[in-house]
Batch of 4 targets.
Target 1
Amino acid sequence: MLINLSTTIALSCPACGRLEKDEINIFELPVGKLKQLSCSCGAEKASIKRIDNSRLQLNYFCLHCNKAHKIKVSNHKFWYSKKLISLSCRETGLNPGFFGRSALVNEEIKKEKQELELIAAELGFDEFKNPDVMLQALDFIHDIAEEGALSCECSNDIINIELFSDKIQLICNDCGARLNIAAVNENDLKRLRQLNKVCIHSIQGKPNNF
C-alpha cells in the first residue's frame, strides 16, 4: 500500500517577502528531528519538529513584526485538516502564511493572485515603475487598514490614497497631512512589511516620506 501523507506550508519570506510553498511528507519528520525551511533567496523561514506521536511544533519568522513565532499543533490537525490553518502574527494580527492540503493551498494562492490581478487591472498598473511591488505594497497597506492600524496623528482614521509611478501617498481626509511610501523595489517592500501600524504626520505642512 502506498502512503503519501503530506502537508503544504505557504509562508512569506521575512527577508525578501516572496510567498513560497514547501510540501512536507510525514516520512521527512521522524519524532525528534528538526526540519528547516528556507526561501529560494537563502533566508531561513521556518523549522518544524515532531515532538512526539501526537504533536508537532512549528517555528516561523514573521515578516510583519520581524520576530519568531511558535505554535504547537496536533498531528491530526497538521496532516488531516480539511481547511487551511493560518499562521498568524501575534504582534499585528496579520497572517504571513498558512498550511494545509496541497490542493487547498494552491487554490488559496490562485485566489489571492486573481484578486490582486483584478485590482491591478482596475488601477491601470502599466503606468508604474514596478507593478508587482506596487501591488504587494497596496495589499499590505490594505491589511494594515483592516486591522485598524492606519491613522493620522490628528486622530482621524479616514485615509485617502493617491498612486504615483514610484510611490503611494496616504492623505488624511481631515487635516490633509500626507505620507509618501516608496514602492519600487524589494527593499521598499521589506521596510514596509516591518511595520505593524502606519501613522501619518506632517512636517511644516509638507508630505512626510516613509
Target 2
Amino acid sequence: MKQIHNFKGIAVVYTMAMLFLSCQDDYKRVGDEAAKKVYPRSVAENFSGTYTESLEKLGSEELGSSKVLAVISGPIRNDFDQLSFPYQTFPEGLLVEIFNEKNEKTTIEADFGVLYSKTSIVDLRGNVLIKSDDGKKLATSQLYYDRGNEWAFTQEKFTFTNPDDGTVMDGEGMDIQKDLKFLNAHKTYGLMLIKEDKEQKND
C-alpha cells in the first residue's frame, strides 16, 4: 500500500509538470502569434530633409528669411510617425549636416540611424564619423545626437583627431559639442602626436 501511494504521488507530479510545460508552450506560441509586425507609414528613397528657423517673428501672411540649421539625407527613410511614440529609421545610413551661426558646417555620418520625432534625439550606429569645419574628427561605433540642445554623447570607444595640435586621442565615453569645439572624455587610453611622428619619418 505504501509503494502504491508513492507511485500515485509521482504520477500526479508528472501529470502536473506535463500540464505546466504544455501551458508554457501554448503561452509562447500564442505570444508569438499575437506579436504584430509594424510597417512604416511611408518609405522615401534618396531623401533630403532641411530643418530651418525664422530669423524674425512674422505675421500670418508675411514672408521673411530663414536660417538652415541642419540637413538630413540618405538612401532610405522609413516613417513610423503613425505610432504613439513616432520615429524614423535610416537602414542604409544617413548624413547629417549641421550649420552654426557663422554658417560653418559639421557633418555626421553613420551606417544606421533612428530619429525620435518627439525628443529630437538621433541614435547613430556603425562607423559613426563627425567632421568639423576646422578639420577635427571623432570616430566611434555608436552616438546619440540631441538636435534640441545641439549636443552629442557616446558611451562607446572613440578616436578623436585634432589637427590644431596634431594629436590623436583614444578613449571611451564622451560628451561633445556639435562642432567639436568642446569635448569631455570620460576615459582616455593615450595621446599620440601626429606632428612628431611625421618629423621622425622625415629624419
Target 3
Amino acid sequence: MAQPLKLYFIRHGIAEERQPHLPDQQRALTPKGRQKTQKVAQRLQILGINFEYLQTSPLVRARQTAEILQHQGLVKAIHVSDLLSPEGNWQDWLKWLQDWRTQGLTHLALVGHEPHLSTWAEILVWGQPCQQLVLKKAGMIGLLLPEHHNPIGQSTLFWLTAPKLLL
C-alpha cells in the first residue's frame, strides 16, 4: 500500500512581461522575481520543508524557480516535464502520478504555471475546478493525498500561503 503523499504546487516567480519579440517559453525571472523566490526558498528551508522529487515545466521561468529551490537544498535533482507546461494535460499528469507513486516516495513538488496548478489542486481537493484557490507567483499550495491511488476529491489542503507571508 502506498504512503500518504505530500504534494506541493509551486508557481514560478515574477517573470518578464510578455513582449512581441520574446517567446513566452523564454520569459525569465526578473531580478525581483529571483530575489523573492530566493527568500521564499530560504524560509521553506528554515521551516524544514524539502522534496524527494521535483518536477518542473520546461519554460525558463519555471526551471529558474526550480533551480533556486535546488540551490537552497530543498531537493537534490530537478526533472523537467512537458506535462507541467501551459499545454500540459491533467489526465496525462495524473497517470504519471499514479506510476510515480509506486516508487514509495512521499514528498513531491511541482513547479509550473497558473491556472493549471490551482485548478489541479482544486480537482484533487473538491473533485472539480471551483476557481477558489489563488496561487501567487512564488506561492505554494500543499496537499496531502490519500494512501489509495484515487486522490480526486479525496485530498486535503494543508498549505496555502502567499509568498509575502514567507518573506
Target 4
Amino acid sequence: MNTLNQITFSLFCLVFLNLTYSQNSKDKVRNPIVVIDPGHGGKDAGASTRNGIKEKDIALGIASKIVVLNNKLVENPLMLFLTRYTDTLISLGDRTQLSKKLKANMFISIHCNQAINRTASGTEVFIYPKSEEQAEESAYLGFTIQKGLAYILGIKNRGIKYGDFQVLRDNDSSAAILLELGFLSQTDEAIYLSKEESQNAVALVILQSIIKFLGL
C-alpha cells in the first residue's frame, strides 16, 4: 500500500468511526487518537542485530501488537493508527502529516538503538519542546513508558533527552516522543527484542502506559 493510500485509508477509518460515535451519542467524547510510528521501513532497515534482524521489523512488530492488544485485551479505549502497516518506506513528512490530519492527541515513534560501544543498553526517550505545556506532556509520557518498561520488564532507563528529529519537530500532537527501546548492538537486548513474546510484553507495557498517562 503506497503512502497516499495509507493516509486515505486511515482518514476514512477516522471519519467512519466519528460518524458512528455521533450517531450513537452526540454528547459522547471521542476516544483519544494515538498515532504509532514504526521507524524506518522498506529500503531503510535501520539498525540490525548480529544475526541480521532489522530494526524496521522489530518496530513494526511491536507497533502492530499494540493495535491488537488495544482491540482485543482492553476493549479498544484508544483510536490507534500506524504510520505504516507493512514493510514500506514512508517519508518523515508523510508521517507527521498523518498525525496532523488526524489531529492526534499523541504521537509515538518506535525505534531501536545501536552504538559502537556494545555494552550500551537501555531505553531512551527524545522530545522536541515546542511549548512549555507540550514539553511537559511529552516528557511525562516518556517518563511513564520508561518507568513501566523498567519496573515491569527490567529494561534499563537511560532517561529523557532533547532530539531534533523531524517527526517531533513538525508534529502538532499534545505529546510527541521518539522511543528507543534498546540497543541492537548489545547482545542481550538484541536477543530479547527479537523474540515474539518479548515484543508482546513491550507492546503491552507501552499500551498500559498510554492508558495510564491519559487517565482512562
